[in-house]
Amino acid sequence: MGPDVFAAHPVVVALDDTEFVRSIQKANADGSLTFFCAIDEGIVFKIAHGANLIDNLRDAIGDVAGRIGPPALILSCDCILRHLEAKQTGVRGLVGRLLADNNSVGFSTYGEQFGGMHINQTFTAIAIAKDDAPSH
């Protein structure tokens, strides 16, 4: 088993009624797993099923555009496991076009920090609106 399998079948842990993805980095020869983030002993995992990557990304960008107008620039940090999932499911080109059509630039990450917690399979971005106001 490798990254493609783990990207397609993430596990989640529930903390305070909120589920967080905990992505597996590799399966070890001794049967143990190495994760991309710290895992406390005794944590119970559930296998997760992801949302439609294209629909989810399109909805998120649409929500942002509805709030600020068409983005002039989106600075994107996209977890490498989302990239692997997009490649594996054959939508990598669609993801790239959707991001390019919305002025997105960025890079792949190994997850993000949120409130002191490392989370995986995320897309984190900063969107900057176009200034359509006439100059004086």
Q: What is the count of DSSP helices, taking H or I runs of 4+ residues?
A: 4
- Average of per-residue pLDDT values: 84
Q: Into how many domains do the coordinates divide?
A: 1
Instruction: Please summarize the sheet with the most strands.
Output: 3 strands, antiparallel
Question: What overall form do the CA principal axes indicate?
Answer: globular
Q: Distance N terminus to C terminus?
A: 61 Å
Structural class: alpha+beta
Structural notes for this entry:
This protein has one domain (3-129). The mean pLDDT is 84. β3 (24-27) and β4 (33-35) form a beta hairpin. The radius of gyration is 17 Å and the shape is globular. The strands form four sheets. Strands 2-1-5 form a three-stranded antiparallel sheet, with no helix packed on it. A three-stranded mixed sheet has the order 7-6-10. The protein has a two-stranded antiparallel sheet with strand order 3-4. It has four helices and ten strands; from the N terminus they run αβββββαβααββββ. The chain has 136 residues and is α+β, with helices and mostly antiparallel strands.
Care to give the gist of this entry?
This protein has 136 residues and is of the alpha+beta class. The chain has helices spanning 3-8, 53-68, 80-88, 92-101; strands spanning 11-15, 18-22, 24-27, 33-35, 46-47, 71-79, 104-109, 112-114, 117-119, 123-129. It has one domain.
Main attributes of the structure:
30% helix; alpha+beta; single chain; three-stranded antiparallel beta sheet
